[in-house]
Amino acid sequence: MEQIDIDGLTASRIGLGTWAVGGWMWGGSDDAEAIATVRAALDRGVTLIDTAPVYGFGHSEELVGRALEGRRDEAIIATKCGLEWSTGSPRRDGRKERIEQELEDSLRRLKTDRIDLYQVHWPDPLTPMEETARALERAYRAGTIRAIGVSNFSPEQMDAFRSVAPLHAVQPPYNLFEREIEKDVLPYAKEHGLVVLGYGALCRGLLSGRIDESTRFPDGDLRLGDPKFADPERRKQYLAAVRALERLARDRFGKSVLALAVRWVLDRGPTVALWGARRPGQLDPLDDVLGWTIDDDAMREIDAILAREVRSPVGPEFMAPPTRS
């Protein structure tokens, strides 16, 4: 397993994303399988486990905590703060009191005395950045959190945060189909020594090679509202790109499109690819990602496929939560 340093913490460059194991927005979850998935990830050398309070409204963190009982020291736990859901749906809240309460709740659910990487989930425009950053800095100085990250932040927002507190990582959406960070966030991270945790490495399953025109999603699944899936014309375009990428992966590297997609994220810079899974078997292709790289010619061919096939690209903006009223 390839490794990366996050403020002195050695983490795997493939991280387990646990949004789906929480069940919310993914059509439910099976607790026993979720726990088995976390343990299977550790067995395969995946040490970075990424979660958040809002994933199942605490349920994902609880399952991660149960899975890590007796194995806590094998894992780098990355969780988040800055969202509240008292109204029934998540809203941004970066106030000091909210973060302090979230940290206490996360420690309890995760059954641990420290969070390895604590990340602000979304910027809160109604709270001064200094207040949010100071809250994390205090926890960092106290040793309750061991590294500080932000998620879904722009370079300007990271500048404001870094003027107050240390910053070690940034977590944006990043995959073959969602590359907006290459304009600003990725260069910024390289310049300032930040690790990039790219979430959605498989673009919500689109790059797994298992989705086609006939695939249907259960009630409550967020992909029902994702334009890549919900718009029939866009789905055709993206699936055509997946098929072309699959041919390239097979012919050039003897790999699956899934392996190509995850390897692509790893080859883009100081990156971690977050791999969402909720069943142990979904981690079976892990070894195919390791031990090779995508050459420059293949990178250019990938870009040509995307330009040719995806004529109406759309980003992940539909996932952004609202601010407080």
3D architecture notes:
This protein has 325 residues and is α/β, with parallel strands linked by helices. It has one domain (3-319): TIM Barrel. Helix content is 36%, strand content 14%. It is built from 10 helices and 12 strands. It has helices at 31-43, 59-67, 96-110, 129-142, 155-162, 185-192, 227-230, 232-253, 257-266, 296-309, and strands spanning 3-6, 9-12, 14-17, 48-50, 76-81, 83-84, 91-92, 117-120, 148-151, 169-171, 195-198, 271-276. The chain has an 8-stranded parallel beta barrel with strand order 3-4-5-8-9-10-11-12, surrounded by 4 helices. Strands 1-2 form a two-stranded antiparallel ribbon. Helix 2 links the parallel strand 4 (48-50) and strand 5. Helix 1 crosses helix 2 and helix 8 packs across helix 9. The longest helix is centred in the last third of the chain and has 22 residues, at 232-253. It is globular and about 50 Å long. The mean pLDDT is 92.
